[in-house]
Write a structure and sequence with these properties.
Elements lengths: L1 H26 L14 H23 L5
Length: 69
Amino acid sequence: MKTAIKSFIFGLIVGGLLAGWTAFNYGRNAPLLSNPFAQGKLKEAVKETTKEVVEETRGKIHDITKPAK
Protein backbone atom coordinates (compact mmCIF):
# COMPACT_ATOMS: atom_id res chain seq x y z
CA MET A 1 0.00 0.00 0.00
CA LYS A 2 2.82 2.42 0.84
CA THR A 3 4.52 1.78 -2.51
CA ALA A 4 1.27 2.53 -4.32
CA ILE A 5 0.96 5.84 -2.50
CA LYS A 6 4.62 6.67 -3.14
CA SER A 7 4.19 5.85 -6.84
CA PHE A 8 1.07 7.99 -7.00
CA ILE A 9 2.76 10.97 -5.36
CA PHE A 10 5.82 10.57 -7.59
CA GLY A 11 3.53 10.51 -10.65
CA LEU A 12 1.75 13.64 -9.48
CA ILE A 13 5.03 15.49 -9.03
CA VAL A 14 6.47 14.42 -12.39
CA GLY A 15 3.15 15.06 -14.15
CA GLY A 16 2.85 18.49 -12.58
CA LEU A 17 6.35 19.46 -13.65
CA LEU A 18 5.76 18.31 -17.22
CA ALA A 19 2.37 20.03 -17.36
CA GLY A 20 3.84 23.28 -16.05
CA TRP A 21 6.71 23.09 -18.52
CA THR A 22 4.47 22.55 -21.54
CA ALA A 23 1.87 25.09 -20.36
CA PHE A 24 4.55 27.75 -19.97
CA ASN A 25 5.84 27.08 -23.49
CA TYR A 26 2.29 27.04 -24.87
CA GLY A 27 1.69 30.47 -23.35
CA ARG A 28 4.82 31.84 -25.03
CA ASN A 29 3.88 30.29 -28.43
CA ALA A 30 7.04 28.18 -28.28
CA PRO A 31 7.35 24.49 -29.17
CA LEU A 32 5.91 22.52 -26.25
CA LEU A 33 9.05 20.53 -25.46
CA SER A 34 11.52 23.39 -25.84
CA ASN A 35 13.49 24.95 -22.98
CA PRO A 36 11.10 27.14 -20.97
CA PHE A 37 14.02 29.22 -19.67
CA ALA A 38 15.40 30.05 -23.13
CA GLN A 39 15.65 33.70 -24.05
CA GLY A 40 12.49 34.89 -25.78
CA LYS A 41 12.51 36.42 -29.22
CA LEU A 42 10.92 39.68 -28.17
CA LYS A 43 12.07 41.70 -31.18
CA GLU A 44 10.51 39.26 -33.64
CA ALA A 45 7.26 39.10 -31.66
CA VAL A 46 6.99 42.90 -31.52
CA LYS A 47 7.81 43.21 -35.21
CA GLU A 48 5.16 40.63 -36.17
CA THR A 49 2.52 42.24 -33.96
CA THR A 50 3.33 45.67 -35.37
CA LYS A 51 2.95 44.38 -38.93
CA GLU A 52 -0.45 42.92 -38.07
CA VAL A 53 -1.62 46.17 -36.47
CA VAL A 54 -0.41 48.26 -39.41
CA GLU A 55 -2.14 46.01 -41.95
CA GLU A 56 -5.36 46.03 -39.93
CA THR A 57 -5.26 49.81 -39.57
CA ARG A 58 -4.50 50.26 -43.27
CA GLY A 59 -7.53 48.15 -44.18
CA LYS A 60 -9.83 50.06 -41.83
CA ILE A 61 -8.62 53.43 -43.15
CA HIS A 62 -9.18 52.18 -46.68
CA ASP A 63 -12.74 51.12 -45.79
CA ILE A 64 -13.50 54.46 -44.12
CA THR A 65 -12.22 56.57 -47.02
CA LYS A 66 -14.20 54.75 -49.71
CA PRO A 67 -16.65 57.05 -51.49
CA ALA A 68 -20.26 56.73 -50.33
CA LYS A 69 -22.69 55.09 -52.72
